[in-house]
Write a structure and sequence with these properties.
With 213 residues, this protein is of the alpha/beta class. Helices cover 25% and strands 29% of the residues. The strands form three sheets. Strands 1-2-3-4-5-6 form a six-stranded mixed beta sheet, with helices on one face. Strands 7-8-9-10-13-14 form a six-stranded mixed beta sheet. The termini are far apart.
């Protein structure tokens, strides 16, 4: 059985996800812890529940989703996995971090690039990688088909969508990604977004003002 622990971290109120199953193997998605207290919160939960972290994943690489990346990759001795098209996004973080009150050095850990259609395995759980650009050029979502859930990053929110005014963002591309990549997954799939509350594909298809025009 897949379990999801949500940590809401940093001043951007970003959702960092810890997924693990009965085998105690787990993954961290979008590690956004921004201080020692938040680092302890996630690492203590992992230790207290005897979880072995086997993958560190990112839906995309905007600052709020990578603040804790160095910490996580160093602590668990793993590469971060994300789409190659978001490498410039990750590399740009140090140049604008000070605007938000952070001093973030260039990421020095190992990187592994993932592509659409890849399956990430941990324990008895599989996550399929779906390419869904628009909010960021290399944005992906992770789909657990058996459990009917999507770790969606900043593509689709409850009654909203990801912003497209950041470098590499494009409104039409984002809408296309939602309609052609997320909607076909199924109305009964739950979406766990990068910010805010969870939702479902079916609810957003019928009610999201950006998608019902």
């Amino acid at each position: 059985m897949l379990k999801i622990k949500i940590f809401t971290f940093n001043p951007f109120q970003e959702n960092t996800y810890l997924l693990f199953d009965d085998t105690k193997k787990g993954v961290i998605v979008d590690c956004g812890c921004s201080n020692s207290s938040e680092e302890k919160e996630i690492s203590n939960f992992i230790a207290d529940n005897n979880i072995e972290i086997v993958h560190i994943l990112n839906t995309h690489c905007h600052i709020d989703h990578v603040i804790g990346l160095d910490f996580a990759c160093s602590k668990y001795q793993l590469p971060v996995q994300f789409h190659r098209a978001d490498l410039p996004v990750l590399e740009a973080v140090p140049s604008y971090a000070s605007m938000y009150g952070f001093s973030i050095p260039a990421f020095g850990g190992e990187m592994k690039f993932i592509e659409e259609g890849e399956v990430i395995q941990f324990g008895n759980t599989q996550l399929e990688v779906i390419f869904a650009p628009g909010h960021a050029p290399g944005h992906v979502v992770f789909v657990a088909k058996k459990e009917k859930l999507i770790i969606g990053g900043d593509v689709l929110f409850y009654s909203s969508i990801g912003r497209t005014d950041l470098p590499g963002g494009d409104y039409d591309t984002l809408i296309e990604s939602i309609k052609t990549k997320l909607f076909p997954i199924g109305d009964d799939f739950t979406v766990y977004p990068g910010h805010g509350q969870k939702t479902t594909i079916g609810f957003e298809r019928k009610n999201n003002p950006f998608l019902t025009q």
